Amino acid sequence: MSDDNTNGTPRPTGEDTGAENLPGRRRRRFPGISSRAYEHPADRSALVALRKLSGFDTVFKALSGLLPERSLRLLFLSDSVRVSDAQFAHLNDMLRDACYILDLEKVPAMYVSQNPQPNAMCIGLDEPIIVVTTGLIELLDEEEMRAVVGHEVGHALSGHAVYRTVLLFLTNLALRVAWIPLGNVAIMAIVTALREWFRKSELSADRAGLLVGQDLQASMRGLMKMAGGNHLHEMNVDAFLKQAEEYEQGGDLRDSVLKILNVLPRTHPFTTVRAAELKKWAESRDHQRLMDGHYPRRDEDKDTSVTDSFRQSASAYASDVRDSKDPLMKLVTDIAGGAGDLGGRVRSRFGGSGKGSGGSGRGADASGEESGGSGEAKGGPSAP
Fold first, then answer.
1. Among 283, 306, 325, where does a domain finish?
2. What radius of gyration, in Å, describes the C-alpha atoms of the chain?
3. pLDDT tens digits, one per residue of 52-70
4. Which of 70, 182, 188, 269 has its CA 20 to 30 A from that of 294?
């Protein structure tokens, strides 16, 4: 696209380069990209765990048929400003850009809601709706806002809107039935699981925002403003990331427990953690390969095994836990490692390993020699 295109909407150039000229810079486009390309492993793991929660499928199916989707749309149509070429045109351009870059065919409706609290969300059951508040628009500059719009389009592409809508409804319902003895226990169990998943989904959407904006510094500035307001001259990215490092590894087990309690009522991860996670991904080989045009595509999704996808995400999630410097995570890793080593010894002693136990038969010796008093057994599991 030539530089004299003033509306900011990227258009195909006919060149199969994957990159498009936008005003003042070039941004890469990702034709046919699957949401698997940017989804955080913890997002997929948490969603699988959520779907396994007892009663979730029943509640989800019931609410999907009962939630007033039409009423929701009428509410925003009547009491918010719909983004278009005629209203908030710059946001409309950003939205179309984001959908073009992530190859989302149908552009979601976007509304601006009068609210001083900086916020944005993607909701809806049949079709996603993006809502941004005036507080957010007034807080962020153009490139920071572009990352936020890309963030919400990422939610739409990943199919997060329906779960977010159910979370909003159940949260309100839990408050209404709180006076009934045990009335909201089951509801809050699902709400807690939904919140855990949604916090992880924010990490995925942050990645989508970076793919759209393709400006890590703008994404960082936006997160810093969400934490400290419009005072960038008083803030420093490196110092902000240092806070995340201190938060992740500082303190003792009591602090680890307090971290869990602090995050439980939240729908979003802490901003320092989000910034650190995004920077780590931006510097990763996976991100570089994606920017080079090597990424999973939507037309391959149907051939992707759910089991394999979960196994990969669980493996990556476990790796993050192992590498964590949090005291509680270290303890869990040590315990799990010791238990795994002990389990290996037990299997080996009783012939469970399937290796070399057939010749001597000692692993299954009825005399109990191997499980009795050998010095090796007394040593316990070795250090992980």
1. 325
2. 25
3. 766 676 677 666 666 667 7
4. 269
Is the pLDDT at 213 greater than 60, yes or no?
yes
- Position of tokens 């500035």? 221
Give me the catalytic one of 20, 39, 144, 152. Answer: 152
Q: Which burial class, exposed, middle or buried, applies to 260 when counting CB atoms under 10 A from its CB (0-12, 13-18, 19+)?
A: exposed
Tell me whether residue 142 is one of the annotated catalytic residues: no
Output the six-digit token pair for 317: 């999630």
**199 and 148 share one domain:** yes
Range of the domain at 332: 326-353+379-384
pTM beyond 0.90: no
Distance of alpha carbon 234 from alpha carbon 361, whole angstroms: 72
State the DSSP code for 167.
H
Helix, strand, coil shares of the chain as percentages rounded to 5? 60, 5, 35
Residues 127 and 42 in one domain: yes
- As a whole-number percent, the residues of the chain with pLDDT over 90 amount to 42
- The total domain count for the chain is 2
Q: If residue 224 lies in a helix (H) or strand (E), which one and from where to where?
A: helix 216-228
145: CB partners within 8 A, 6+ apart: 91, 94, 136, 137, 222
